Amino acid sequence: MKISDNLEKNVKTIQDSYGNSGDLVTRTITIKNKKIAYIYLASVSSDDKISNFLMKNISSFVKENSLNLFKDLFKRLENTIYNSNLSTSKTKEDIVYKLSSGFACIFVDGYDEAITIETRMQLDRGVTESSSEAVIRGPKDSFTENHNINLGLIRKRVKDENLWFKDIRIGRRTKTKVSIGYINDIVNKKNVKIIEERLSKIDVDGVLDSGYIREFLTNKSNNSLPNMISTERPDLVSGALLEGKIVILVENSPFALILPGLLIDFLHNPEDYYQKPINISLTRILRFIGFILTIITPGFYIAVTTWNQEVIPNELLISLSIQKSGVPFPTALELILMIAIFEILREADTRMPNNTGAAISIVGALILGEAAVSAGIVSPIVIIVVAFTSISGLLYTDIDFINGIRWWRLIFIFFSTILGFIGLIIAFLIFVVKLCSIEYLNIPYMVPSAPLYPKMLKDSIIRFSKLRQKTRAPYLTKNETRMEEYK
Fold it and tell me: The dihedral of CA 342, 348, 354, 355: what is its sign?
């Protein structure tokens, strides 16, 4: 809706729009028989900026007695306040959006447009170390809730004019700014277009975090494992951009989304590229083994102790039988019970304050486990299996990936309980087929293994030297040259 050339009517419209909210400040002054009003929200705007800069400039106009037209005031502010975002608006919707974003709006009686000048208050925290991804070696900075700071943390690493950000405003009420980032001469333009179309179709009341838009970007996928990476680390985002991936940054969210997220990406860590390849290769092998073991270990234990006891050596079978004696529950129920207790403890440890979370973990892991064995509710070997399974699942930082592993762990337990080793094999085949059938942005989830890209295996489970990784992944970009011949 266009604003009027009547100052009082415009002020009344803005006040009614905000319901005469207590933090809406309006003031009207008269200069040479011309009324001027400025409006701002005290909760998001800085009173000091308005008093020290904006009002001093308007007051100087009174002394100079030189204000004649709307454009005179705009020119005056433009020439004296250099470091603020200054523009004009002609619609109520644009003025309301800017007021809520920390702008002050100036109306001049007789003109049907307003001057908007940024007077934003600093409401976010500074750049700190990531709280969700531990950093042992590498940059310590992380994203914050400030959108411009997040863009700056990327731009200071990738100083390239081809690093582009496209902004989309999402949310009928929050009008949240969402930025799509990519390197223009590397990224696949078709994928950028697909993401833009999906984001433009989102019609919700509000977007408060990057997690709000994940479901809209996954195209109703029923896969429990994530196909995009959520991270606080700008170095990981910068590396992904250089590989030809797309990044999504959401205003007021410290987490960026990297698209697409492949299975191999969740087994990697940004710090892998800051250390020697031979050492990191061993670490990656351990992560891969941990990924397999955390899924199949409970099902394997059920299969060998319930259905296929002939594969266990007699001495070990006798020991397991002695431990099992006196326990009233089936093996599967023991495992599910202890896994459920561990997950509850892990969730409590995550949600509780730091000064009490450690105490809960110690009480739960030591006292509760020991008490359960002493009471004859579970056998000691079950505690070992559950502890080994759970610790293996903590090798990864992405919470969605960890939660996705839970479902497959239960599926393996279900099939092993019913069919033993045959069920375990069936569950494994279902698992592999499911992973191979997943695609995102027309890229298979299992690349570079399935389909096979031999050149890309140099940075999969085994990490080769950077000198041997001269090309980017062909399934991400057509600009495959990463580095020239090094002599």
Answer: negative
Phi-psi region of 91 (alpha: psi -120 to 50; beta: other; left: phi over 0): beta
Locate 245 and state its tokens.
Answer: 């991936």
Q: Which residues pair with 45 in a beta bridge?
A: 120
Report whether 54 contacts 38 (CB < 8 A). yes
pTM exceeds 0.90 for this model = no
Contact 180, 202 (CB under 8 A): no
CA pair distance 149, 155, nearest whole angstrom: 10
The tokens describing 481, both together, are 């040259």
Structure tokens at 7: 């100052």
Which of 78-87, 375-384, 401-410 shows the lowest mean pLDDT across its residues? 78-87
User: Would the CA dihedral through 330, 336, 340, 342 be positive or negative?
Assistant: positive
Q: What is the number of other CB atoms lying within 10 angstroms of the CB of residue 331?
A: 25
Rounded to whole angstroms, the Cα distance separating 293 from 143 reads 33
Contact between residue 108 and residue 4 where contact means Cβ atoms under 8 Å apart = no
Which position has the token pair 């409401």?
123
- Residues 344, 339: Cα–Cα separation, whole Å: 9
Close Cβ partners of 390 (under 8 Å, ≥ 6 residues apart)? 294, 339, 342, 346
Q: Where are the beta strands (DSSP E) in 211-307?
A: 229-231, 246-250, 256-259
Q: Which residues contact 23 (CB under 8 A, 6 or more apart)?
A: 41, 42, 43
Rounded CA-CA distance 19/7 in Å is: 18
Q: Distance between CA 53 and CA 308 in Å, rounded?
A: 81
**Would you state the structure tokens that stand for residue 373, as one six-digit string?**
């064995």
- Alpha carbon distance 162, 75 (integer Å): 33
Instruction: Note the pLDDT tens digit of each residue in 397-451.
Output: 888 898 899 899 999 999 999 999 999 999 999 999 999 999 999 899 999 988 8
- Taking only the tens place, the pLDDT of each residue in 241-278 is 999 999 999 999 999 999 999 999 999 988 898 989 99
β-pair partners for 167: 179
Tokens of 475: 């399934």
